[in-house]
Amino acid sequence: MSQTVDRALSILPLLAEGPADLGQVADRLGVHKSTALRLLRTLHEHGLVYRQSDQRYRLGARLFALAQEAMENLDVREIAHPHLVRLNEQCGHTVHLAVYEENEVLYIDKVESRYPVRMYSRIGKPVAITVAAVAKLLLADLPEPERRALAEKLDYPMYTPRSTPNAEAFLKELAKVREQGWATDLGGHEESINCVAAPIRGADGRVVAAMSVSAPNVVVTADELLTLLPLVRRTADAISGEYSGRTPVHRPDKDTP
């Protein structure tokens, strides 16, 4: 039974490359045509493949519907949270998770620092969109016309002397973030707070969320915080892999090395 399931599932990547006839499917699987036909008929009955008028097979609409339904039901916060907790245990600093919704960047999860100095950020609260590291990552992933249109209609409050002053500077920063794949806020919102962030990507490579580590200067300097960037990026990659289904589900815990 497991061999039959394995063969049936092996047909799907083949058809993802384009329509194929019975002989091509049989050759790819290394089986007789009658075996390949039986597998294709079963997949066809479930809507996972479709037989065209030219007798070639392609992926069926039901497969795309299932994929779309699965994506809609994914909860990035639920997937990310154990990883955020693990990161917090490793570094001790505040960890945030944020998403972009309806022209706002919102925190959807937070793990508090173990140090006495705490941040005022709250789950559900919009971030300072023109300076926050998570916002830069989320907006940098937008298509260029959308990115420019948004930048030009934003206000640019000068929270500190390091805040982003205008749309031109913001677009330049977003281009840099898009190229390097990570972002920082080094005193742009609060002079005493620094932040490093990395993107969480879906199966299509698009940024679906962003996570960050933040800490005040009295705990660590900006340079010291930047040394955590590789750890932050590895955590984001682990979340991305689980969210997109590229890696097996792994729930980190305190005993995991």
What features would you describe in this structure?
Residues 249-257 have low confidence and may be disordered. The relative contact order is 0.11. This protein has ten helices and seven strands. α5 (76-91) runs antiparallel to α10. It is elongated, with a radius of gyration of 23 Å. The protein is an alpha+beta fold. The strands form two sheets. It has a five-stranded antiparallel sheet with strand order 4-3-7-6-5, with helices on both faces. A two-stranded antiparallel sheet has the order 1-2. The protein starts with a helix and ends in a 13-residue tail after the last helix.
In short:
With 257 residues, this protein is an alpha+beta fold. It contains 10 helices and 7 strands.
Layout: helices, strands, pairs:
Layout: H1 2-16, H2 22-29, H3 33-45, E1 49-51, E2 57-59, H4 61-73, H5 76-91, E3 94-101, E4 104-111, H6 133-140, H7 144-153, H8 167-180, E5 183-186, E6 193-201, E7 207-216, H9 222-226, H10 229-244
Antiparallel strand pairs: 1-2, 3-4, 3-7, 5-6, 6-7
Helix pairs in contact: 1-3, 2-3, 5-10, 6-8, 7-8
